[in-house]
Amino acid sequence: MEGEASVNKLHTQIEIKPQGQEPPPPYSSVVDNSEMDIQPEGKLPFFKSRYRQRASDTWLISLLVILHLVAFITTTLFNYFSTGSVFFQPLSENPLLGPSASTLDKVGALRRAFLVQNHLNWRFFVCPWLHAGIIHFAINISCMIFIGIHLERDYGPLRIGVIYLLSAFFGSLVCSLFVRNNPVVTSSGALFGLLGTMLSGLIRNWKVYSSKGAAFAALITVLATNFLLGLLPYIDNFANIGAFISGLLLGFVLLLTPQIRQMSKNKAGLFECGVKHSKSTIKLKQKLALDRPILRSISLILFVILLSGCLVALFLGIDINHYCGWCRFIDCIPYKRWSCNDGPNTCEVYIYTF
User: Fold this and answer.
1) CA–CA dist 83, 88 (Å, integer)
2) I need a surface site. Which of 22, 231, 280, 323 has the fewest CB within 10 A?
3) Is residue 17's pLDDT more than 50?
4) What is the DSSP letter of 258?
5) Can you tell me whether residue 37 is helix, strand or coil?
6) Which helix (H) or strand (E) covers residue 281, if one does?
7) Exposure of 268 by Cβ count < 10 A (0-12 exposed, 13-18 middle, 19+ buried)?
8) Per-residue confidence at 43, pLDDT binned at 50, 70, 90?
9) Please, how many CA atoms are within 13 Å of residue 85, restricted to the half-sphere of its CB?
10) DSSP tag of 235
C-alpha cells in the first residue's frame, strides 16, 4: 500500500508540473521584439501619437517654433516703433492682422526691386522666418507642429531638418521668379515642404503605414487651408508650390523607413483602428529593409536640376510675370477689402534698403 501511494504521489507531481508552465511563444528562438524595435503586431499607424517616444524626439520642431516666435515678436516690435502706437495694422491695410508693408520691407520681406535693383540676397535666408500677421502665424505654426512632430518622430530630426531648410530656401527662390513690387513673406513654404515630405513618406512606405486615408485627409486639409490663406496679400503661394515640390523630391531621396518603436500595451495610435496584421514580424522587417535606389536617384537629379534652374533664372533677373499674365491670381485674389497691386515705386523702395 505504501508503494502504491508513493507511485500515485509521484505520478500526480509529474502531471501537475507541466500545467504550471507557460508554452513558449512562437518564433521565440528566431525573433526578439526588443531588439527589432518595431511594432510586433503589424503595420504602423501614421499618426501614432501614443507610442512610446523620448522627449528629445521633437527638439527640432520645438526649436523651429521658438525661432518663428522670436521673428514674429521682432516684426511686431518693429511695427510698433515705426508707427508709435499700434502693434498690428487695421484689417483694411493688412487682412491678416499684421504689420505694415514698410515694416515687412525693413525686417526682410521679398520684393522685386530689392532683388533686381539692390541685390539684397540676404532676404532669401530671412524671409522664410517671417509671417504676414497673427492669423498667418497661428495657422502656420499650428499646422507645422501637427505635421512636423509626426515626421520628426518617424524619420528623425536630422533628415527632417535638412528637408525643412532646403525646402524653405527653394521656396524663396521660386518666389523670386514671380514676386512683384509688393512685399511678401515665405514662412509657409517650409510648411509646404513638410507636407510634400509627408506625401513622399506615405508613397514610399505605402505597405508600412495603415490608415492611409486618414493621413491623406489630414494632408489635403492642411494643404488647402494654407493655400487659400496664400491668396491674401503678403503671403506668396509660389513659394508654397516650390517648397512642396522640393519636400516631395527630397522626401524620396532622404526618407528611407520610419523609426518604428514598440507600442505600449493597452494603448492605441490615433488612427490605429485600421491596423492590418502581417503574417510574420520577420517579413515586415524584410519589407522595411528594402530600398528604392532608382526612385532616390531620379528624385535627386530632378531636385538638382530645378534648384540650378532657379539659381540661373535669379541671376539673369527673369520675371515670369512678363510671360504669364494670369499667374498673379495664384498669389493674390483682388478684393475690395485689400489690394493686390504693386506697392510703392522704386524711389520709395530705396528707403528700406539698409
Assistant:
1) 10
2) 22
3) no
4) -
5) coil
6) helix 281-289
7) middle
8) low
9) 2
10) B
* pLDDT tens digits for range 63-88: 999 999 999 999 999 998 887 777 88
The candidate with the shortest Cα–Cα distance to 248, out of 281, 295, 294, 184, is 295
Cell of 219: 494632408
CA–CA gap between residue 188 and residue 229 (Å, rounded) = 10
User: What is the grid cell recorded at 177?
Assistant: 521668379
How far apart (Å, rounded) are the C-alpha atoms in residues 222 and 147?
A: 9
CB 193 within 8 A of CB 125: no
Grid-cell match 509626426, residue found: 150
**Three cell numbers written together for 33:** 521584439
Q: Quick one: pLDDT at residue 215?
A: 84
pTM confidence score: 0.75
C-alpha cell at 115: 532683388
Rounded distance, CA 217 to CA 144, Å? 16
Q: Write down the H helix ranges in the chain.
A: 2-19, 33-36, 59-83, 101-107, 112-116, 123-126, 134-155, 157-178, 187-204, 212-229, 237-254, 281-289, 293-316, 328-331, 346-349
Cell numbers representing residue 92 in the block: 483694411
Q: Which residues contact 339 (CB under 8 A, 6 or more apart)?
A: 233
Lowest mean pLDDT among 146-155, 163-172, 175-184, 328-337: 328-337
| Fold exhibited by the domain 60-257+288-323 | Rhomboid-like fold (1.20.1540)
> What secondary structure, in 3-state letters, does 127-189 show?
HHHCCCCHHHHHHHHHHHHHHHHHHHHHHCHHHHHHHHHHHHHHHHHHHHHHCCCCCEECHHH
Angle at alpha carbon of residue 197, lines to 287 and 42, rounded to 5°: 30
Domain extents for the chain? 60-257+288-323
